[in-house]
Design brief:
The chain has 153 residues and is an alpha+beta fold. It is built from 5 helices and 8 strands, in the order E-E-E-H-H-H-H-H-E-E-E-E-E. The mean pLDDT is 97.
Length: 153
């Protein structure tokens, strides 16, 4: 489900409303390995499937928490479309919790609610979004985050 509005100003009326849910993204081992290379985080619980199966409390390799969090970017693009916006900025995060590990091969999706809308100078707005990165087959989300986005027309 995607929310689509013609103008940025229309979002004000959607405060407190669920914006939508993205499609599922698979977090396969090659993606985890690529992320490990990009961040120099080669901890065995992420990149050594044999050792992770034998010794990890998770029963196999898991995605880096920050990898899972970074997937909010493509998933956010599926949740909200604002036709007159020309510039979008990830402004920051107020709170992040990694509440459930994502196993290699697991699938995640984003569900998001517009917590608040604040007008900015120069035709912009700051959105505060309560978001959950859900893990397929689990009642507990993988990540819970309050994200800040700035959009400009």
């Amino acid at each position: 489900m995607t929310t689509r509005v013609a103008t940025l100003a229309e979002l004000k009326s959607l405060e407190g409303t669920e914006l939508g849910t993205s499609s599922w993204i698979e977090v396969a081992q090659p993606r985890i390995d690529t992320f490990a290379d990009a961040t120099d985080d080669h901890q065995w619980i992420h990149v050594d499937p044999e050792r992770a199966k034998a010794h990890s409390p998770f029963g196999g390799p898991i995605a880096h928490g920050y990898l899972t969090l970074s997937l909010i970017i493509p998933m956010w693009e599926e949740v909200l479309v604002v036709d007159d916006v020309t510039t979008k900025i990830n402004y920051g995060l107020n709170k992040v919790r990694f509440t459930n590990p994502v196993p290699a091969g697991g699938r995640v999706r984003l569900s998001a609610t517009l917590k608040s809308y604040e007008e900015l100078p120069n035709g912009g707005a700051q959105l505060t979004v309560d978001a959950k990165i859900e893990l397929e087959g689990s009642e507990r989300p993988a990540v819970v985050v309050e994200a800040l986005y700035r959009m400009f027309v």
